[in-house]
Specification:
The complex is a heterodimer of chains A (448) and B (289).
Chain A (H helix, E strand, L loop, with lengths): L7 H7 L3 H15 L8 H4 L11 E6 L3 H10 L5 E7 L3 H15 L5 E3 L2 H4 L7 E4 L7 H9 L3 E4 L7 H13 L4 E3 L7 H11 L6 E7 L20 H5 L26 H17 L8 E7 L11 E8 L11 E6 L5 E6 L3 E5 L3 E5 L21 H11 L7 H20 L3 E4 L4 E2 L3 H4 L13
Parallel strand pairs in A: 1-2, 1-4, 2-3, 4-5, 5-6, 7-10
Antiparallel strand pairs in A: 7-11, 8-9, 8-14, 9-10, 11-12, 12-13, 14-15
Helix pairs in contact in A: 4-5, 7-8, 8-13, 9-11, 11-13
Chain B lengths: L1 H22 L2 H4 L11 H13 L3 H15 L5 H14 L5 H4 L9 H8 L5 H11 L4 H13 L6 H6 L6 H14 L2 H10 L5 H20 L3 H11 L6 H13 L3 H12 L4 H18 L1
Helix pairs in contact in B: 3-4, 3-5, 4-5, 5-7, 7-9, 8-9, 9-11, 11-12, 11-13, 12-13, 13-14, 13-15, 14-15, 15-16, 15-17, 16-17
Classes of the chains: A alpha/beta (448), B mainly alpha (289).
């Protein structure tokens, strides 16, 4: 949307909100495309372009490799306009800015080091957030408080409590949210989950979630902070630590101050699919026992090898009346395998959908059966929901309950004991020591 | 004479710290000189001890005391940071006196908060409240945030006074802290603060009251929550606040009343409310399916 038509105050006079304007403009465009002599069709989007006033304006917080990839997913959509990028690394920032400007053929994209300054703009409809995990909660909550819709990366949050704060805030401000759990927008994952949800493999007793093996690295030397990298801002709420190259950017994933290792990085995707198939998107396990191997030396300290056993109570899943077990490990094949009394379903990336019996794969769903949310394009789904105000295919609650499983596994592994969990109250059962690991204090003035 | 007394005090303190350090075993002594860049193995050994101690309360207490003793020793800052993070896991009220002094130094305030935030009991609350009056800037903001996370109701009075602090970061943190603590007293203080804070922070107070109303709703106090939502979401407020207050009223209403509110919302003069009502209706339809 163009800035002159965007401010809330201006719309207030006419009773037209930002998104109301988007919806009405779409209707208007549809009604007049047959009259190009009155209004140039290109201005209204009939030639595949979208009228500037009808575009969803988007800012991007975090444009490293993941964020830039996500941003590129939005650039081809004519009804979306990336107007600003924000990153604490100048190199990342300028790279993203150049990509946006060369796509649009102008120099309009603004860049910011501090997301709070970006949030001061009054011309934004939505935000794309792809920052390291230890940063997920803070900008997301600040963005929600501004009333902006969000596409944000998984894993939802660094801790279960931060995740809960995010869920509550997104609901409080009634903003549209989509997690970057794009596997939900792939037909094989959806079909596999639909087969499970409709009882085609009988009662499910076991779900095996296969994830990658973690990494270790030797102790790293303290290094000078690269020019253009605001390292203190990058650390943000995490404890003070000297700069070394292998701490930052993609590798933050292997350090427990900033993430949870492969377990949370991939677990966010595959545990989400496991929950989708089992219908456990609003609950969690009752018991968790994790065994892991953590590097005893070196910079990276997240689990390298792991096996987590989660037991779900009776009634937790509609396809498992007697309860079921979810096993999460790097010793399984990558992907999600549902094992039931009448067969199995296995799903993975690359369109993999394998069933036992094999004929199950071809089984069609009847009109009265459970049809899961259908999205063919993750970015497109988000943009459509920004307009329609409908929930997206990857809502925040699902992301929270999905990542809670790996978080619980990490806590159990780090305490080397079996833990009992109350998923409704989101705390451990009579276990204040384990509860202490549900969150951590933040450095400096940062808070959620 | 004064110089001699001072030397005596310093000498006694050093002796005391050395004595405390002597009490710790060789595995803990091994971490006292730890600096980033050295082998992490000695830290890993202590982490193992902490893990094991979780299953043996007496051992946990003993180990926590030994770790706390290192905070007053000449251990390196990197060691003390590590120790505080272990105390976050196993520290108890009896360790608070060893941690509390670190709150007053801006260089150690963070690590002290890491340890204190999860330690149960009033001792930690008292230490934080005591330090609140003796710190400023980032340290004060950090302490406010921890008081909020601890849901320290005893802090409401002191925190409320800071909502009009001359340091805008402190004032903002105080408002947020009241919201996180929640409860009737915090709501009363926030409602008063709404007319007292700087114009820039007025919306923060509205945000805080919305959070308080959410707490009430979660606690099953729907009527009280609805009252707060209605009060916060006046037509003079920014749309995002009105929308949140409207959604809050819908969420805490009975099914029948919620439908009525949505219908009213769909006819609202405010387009943002109409959009919110549309979204809420869509959500309810999807829930039915």
């Amino acid at each position: 949307m163009s800035k002159d038509l965007k401010t809330e105050e201006k719309h207030k006079d006419y009773g037209i909100g930002r998104r109301g304007f988007l919806k009405r403009s779409t209707a208007l465009a549809a009604s007049v495309v047959g009259f190009p002599y009155i209004v140039p069709a290109s201005a209204l989007g009939a030639d595949g372009n979208t009228a500037p006033s009808n575009r969803i304006t988007m800012g991007c917080i975090g444009v490293g490799s993941q964020g830039t990839g996500d941003m590129k997913g939005f650039l081809p959509h004519k009804d979306c306009r990336v107007v600003a990028v924000c990153d604490v690394d100048r190199g990342h920032r300028e790279n993203a800015q150049n990509i946006v400007n060369s796509t649009y053929g102008n120099k309009d994209c603004k860049d910011y080091n501090d997301f709070r300054e970006l949030l001061e703009r009054d011309d934004l409809d939505a935000m794309l957030i792809a920052v390291p995990d230890h940063w997920h909660a803070i900008p997301a909550i600040a963005t929600a408080k501004k009333g902006l819709d969000m596409y944000a990366e998984k894993p939802l949050a660094l801790t279960i409590k931060q995740g809960r704060a995010m869920v509550d805030t997104i609901h409080r401000y009634n903003v549209v949210w989509q997690t970057g759990s794009w596997q939900r927008s792939k037909a094989n994952f959806r079909k596999g989950c639909e087969l499970v949800r409709n009882g085609r493999i009988g009662h499910v007793h076991t779900v095996k979630v296969g994830l990658p093996t973690g990494h270790s690295i030797e102790t790293q030397p303290v290094m000078p902070i690269p020019d253009g990298f605001d390292y203190n801002f990058w650390l943000g709420p995490a404890p003070q630590a000297p700069y070394t190259e292998k701490r930052c950017f993609w590798n933050f994933r292997w350090i427990l101050d900033y993430s949870g290792g492969q377990l949370t990085d991939w677990g966010a995707h595959h545990c989400d699919i496991a929950n989708w198939g089992m219908g456990t998107e609003h609950t969690g396990p009752a018991e968790i026992f994790g065994k892991g191997e953590f590097p005893r030396e070196g910079l990276w300290n997240a689990a390298v090898n792991y096996m987590i056993e989660c037991k779900y109570s009776k009634g937790a899943s509609p396809v498992s009346p007697d309860g079921f077990t979810m096993l999460i490990s790097n010793s399984f094949h990558m992907g999600v395998r549902f094992e039931g009394t009448k067969g199995t379903v296995f799903v993975d990336r690359g369109g993999v959908l394998e069933t036992e019996p094999a004929s199950l794969k071809r089984s069609a769903l009847g009109p009265d059966e459970i049809h899961l949310y259908r999205s063919e394009d993750h970015a497109r789904n988000f943009l459509e929901c920004v307009r329609s105000r409908k929930p997206t295919v990857a809502p925040i609650d699902a992301a929270h309950y999905a990542i809670a499983i790996p978080h619980l596994g990490n806590i159990s592994m780090r305490q080397e004991r079996k833990l009992r969990w109350n998923p409704a109250e989101e705390h451990f059962v009579d276990d204040p020591e384990a509860d202490r690991m549900l969150d951590r204090a933040m450095r400096g003035t940062w808070h959620v | 004479m004064k110089k001699i007394s001072y030397a005596l005090i310093v000498g006694l303190m050093c002796f005391s710290l050395m004595a405390q350090a002597q009490q710790v075993g060789p595995r803990l002594r091994a971490i006292m000189t730890y600096k980033y860049g050295q082998s992490r193995e000695p830290l890993t050994v202590v982490e193992d001890m902490v893990k094991v101690s979780l299953q043996f309360p007496a051992q946990q207490k003993r180990l926590a005391a030994q770790l706390a003793a290192l905070l007053g020793s000449q251990a390196t800052p990197d060691c003390k940071l590590f120790v505080c993070r272990q105390l976050a896991l196993i520290g108890g009220p009896e360790n608070v006196p060893a941690i509390a002094p670190l709150l007053l130094n801006p260089k150690t305030n963070d690590m002290a908060r890491y340890a204190l935030e999860p330690i149960p009991g009033k001792q930690a609350d008292k230490a934080l409240l005591n330090a609140l009056g003796k710190t400023s800037g980032a340290s004060k903001v950090g302490i406010l945030n921890v008081l909020g996370q601890r849901k320290c109701e005893a802090a409401v009075g002191d925190v409320a006074k800071l909502t009009t602090d001359s340091d805008p970061e402190v004032a903002e943190a105080a408002i947020n802290t009241l919201a996180v603590i929640g409860g009737t007293r915090a709501i009363t203080k926030l409602e008063s603060a709404r007319d007292e804070v700087t114009p820039k922070l007025r919306d923060n107070v509205s945000d805080a009251l919305l959070l308080c109303a959410d707490h009430l709703m979660t606690a099953g106090k729907s009527r009280k929550a609805a009252r707060v939502y209605r009060k916060v979401g006046g037509p003079e407020e920014p749309s995002r606040i009105q929308v949140a207050a409207f959604a809050g009223q819908v969420h805490c209403a009975s099914r029948h009343k919620a439908s009525r509110l949505i219908q009213e919302g769909l006819k609202s003069k405010n387009a943002a409310i109409r959009e919110a009502a549309t979204g809420l209706q869509e959500q309810r339809e999807m829930m039915k399916k």
